[in-house]
Design a protein that fits this description.
The structure is a single chain. Helix content is 29%, strand content 29%. It is an alpha+beta fold. It has three domains: 68 residues, no CATH class; 133 residues, Urate Oxidase; 152 residues, Urate Oxidase (Roll). Helix 2 packs across helix 5, helix 7 packs across helix 8 and helix 9 runs antiparallel to helix 10. The longest helix is centred in the C-terminal third of the chain and has 17 residues. The chain starts with 15 loop residues before the first helix and ends in an 11-residue tail after the last strand.
Length: 378
Amino acid sequence: MRDPKGQAPQPDGLTTASRVETVARCSPADPLLDTRRRASATTPARFPRAPPPAARRALARADRSDRAFLADKRAAAVVADLVMPNLVHHVHGKKRVRVARTWREGSVHHFVEWNVEVVIESAMAHAYKTPSNEGMTTTDTTKNQCYVVAKAMQKRCAPETYALALGKQFLDSYPLISAVEVRVEQAPWRRTKVLGADHDHGYTFTAPCLRVCAAVVSRTKPPAVRSGMRNLRVLKTTQSGYEGFLVDKHTALKDTRERIFATAVDVDWTWSKPPGCYDGAYDGVYDALAENFFGPPRGGVYSPSVQYTLYQMGTAAVERVNGLEQITLTAPNLHFIPANPPGAAPFADDVYVATSEPHGQISCTVSAKHGFAPLAKL
């Protein structure tokens, strides 16, 4: 049965024309930020959420005039809310944006290389649920902003400072963006020494690990920064053992007080307050970790287990670096297994089979406060 305008009724008793008229009454003042709110507000309460197959069959039976309203992006959003599964989360952004920056201070040049990732949370549900891209901050624009902000950093800065500035740039420039996470990896370039002196503008790729950081900048919460290291490879040839562990019929490992201890540590830490200098704080964390892994230059320090040493390293960092709130260390074993080749003299802590597969994986989190706080991220 059709209404006087010739429109076929929908499963809820409404015609397409009345549905479109209802959608058209939505306030045009903010057509993008709350599509879902407007969709639910314009849907009669008596319309039941039909299972997707049933809803699709109902649409399939509609005539051409019924389908025409789908071209209207607002009406399309209404239909999408009614017949499709919920879109519960979405982000977009840009990854592997490689930014290099030189600051020239007279004859001395300071250089960094950053690998940048930007993750954007925005009012872009309509871009997933309808053909409209209206208001979208493109990933190409996202890439270009990485270079714009690097250019604007007139004084040399830590990657954390750059990440905060880049996140703020997106919020200041694009009103539909609600939050941004900027992740930065700093390549291990280090000023080189020639004849024992620092070179003015020479760098070598020799830093001990990859420096990383991330900043989450939001319109509703204070900025959250985390810093870290990746693949900090450390090894000592002695002063390490492992004994007293549970032994059953499946255990092949033997007690030892003499072994190589090697790992490639990933470290992440958060801040209760910004440090006075992110670079200086990073150096402080590195020094605390190194001193408690290796011990004094003469004699070192004994490690009874990876677990014990990780906790000592994390505790030293929290106690030494002002503002460091929580630190997580993850340490996969790099194994050096005694080699006993046929025909050779017995093993004498001298020749090993180097392998990393399979490997143990040990992690711990040390906090200045009681309780565990998950890392803030989008």
